Amino acid sequence: MKVLLFACCVVLFNAPLTSADLRPPTKPAEQKVSEPKYILHTGLEITTDPKAYEAKLQIPQSQLQNFRAALDGAPGNPTVVGGIAVSAPRTIIAGLLMFLAVSVAGVLLARSFGRTQKAIAAIVLVVMVLGAAAIITRGNAGPPGSYRWRNLPQALAKGESTTGGVDIEVVPDDQLSGRMRLIMPLKKQTAPGEE
Amino acid sequence: MQSAVELRTWPTAGAVPSARVFVAIVVLCTIASAAFASWLPLQVSIVTVFLFAGPHNWFELRYFLMRLPVRFGRSRNFFLTAFVGLGVLTLVYVSLPFIYNASTRSEEAWSTVIATWNTALIIWLSALIWLRSKQKSRTNWAWLIPVGLALCSLNWLGPNFFSLAIVYVHPLVALWFLDRHLRRTRPAWSRAYRRCLCLLPLVLVGMFWQLSQSESLADNNGLFWRITQHSGAEVLPQVSSHLLVSVHLFLEMLHYAVWIVALPLIGQAASRRFWNVKTVPVARHPKGFPRLVAAVFIVAFVAVAALWFGFSIDYATTRDVYFTIAIAHVLAEAPFLLRMI
Question: In this structure, how many other beta carbons lie within 10 angstroms of the beta carbon of residue B105?
Fold first, then answer.
């Protein structure tokens, strides 16, 4: 019984940890046309070219197709998570089967009460694996995106490239006066002795 | 003894190579397979399937016949369940493309069909495991029930991912067969082999590190498109199809190497006379079926020749047909592997 209670506690406490860093779900009804519209997250490399006459923005063809699909409201390339359980009946069946699996596992665990320590270790291990998988697949695991851009000024000064993540947003024309804007997550660096 | 024939009884002849030679060959094959699969995945995939798909099925069939008891005895229910399930699941699987072409159902309905077939597969495997566990009183396989239920649940969440998992896991089953076979016939090599298996995840991580950022393969013709789809390019669009095809091809090459080279060569007498019907216990036994086994061998050989002919005439269509029918050998591995555990 103690093992079962412990298992329930571990699972329950693990849930908020794994979903704590998730982006809040976007409600389509609340998303107004006049507000920036998040399309997708992709990679960006900022580099210098001393021979270039003009600044250049190079976009892979596949990414452009994704932009177009997102603007048209059509589904672009679906994400891995997006391919899972989009139908209610399948989700219900999966839920029932998972309920049965956990129930039967609990009964078997209770019957093997003599091997408590091994059982607890197994539970912790399974929950850790599930939690890690959930964080990796559902959350933005790892350091914040700004971490990769922290050395951008120094890299630009040295003529080196910097790579990191970037969110693509579509913004109404009146907010940008027809220009593109690249917002970098950099804090103003204070010189030594400067407040 | 009505259970499967003990492989220790195979006659041995000639000098037995050392475990070091065996390890060197395994490591060399693994690294060479990974290198070729990463270098030219599409081209090597075409050549590999053309050359080895049919022969590996022939050797697999022969291996299963060698593991088949003359009389089922206490294992009657096990083999009955195995063969009935194998036949029904294969027939349904082969008919799925016809159902897809004939029906105008939605993608959602199609996912449900796939999930149902996968569930039937898991139920069949669970039944086999349960029947096998009844013959092994010392082992407790009850924990496989929640595992089976959890697998069913995951399957219903993402049937396409589950099907893709079968594509990638199936080649690894051959490595398990080899492990069990070595434990019985070459215990001295077993430990060395298991150490070699540690190389596998390292090679896979290396391939992932090397190819994850590579551009997807150009699937601008029907054949290349089929190969990338088979490796899961549609199910995992974020992953480079170069990585997917390379990893799948690497595993397939290991799979073929185990069935065509490793398993026949471990039994030395069999390696020299693998065409000889009398090397199969079911045919050699006084109450056996030598003519039936000979007929099966000949029909299988004709099928291999027909497959080569088909590949020569229309590679893409033959590949589609082969990988649909080949589900039978994927399923057949389960009961024979269970008999070795």
Answer: 13
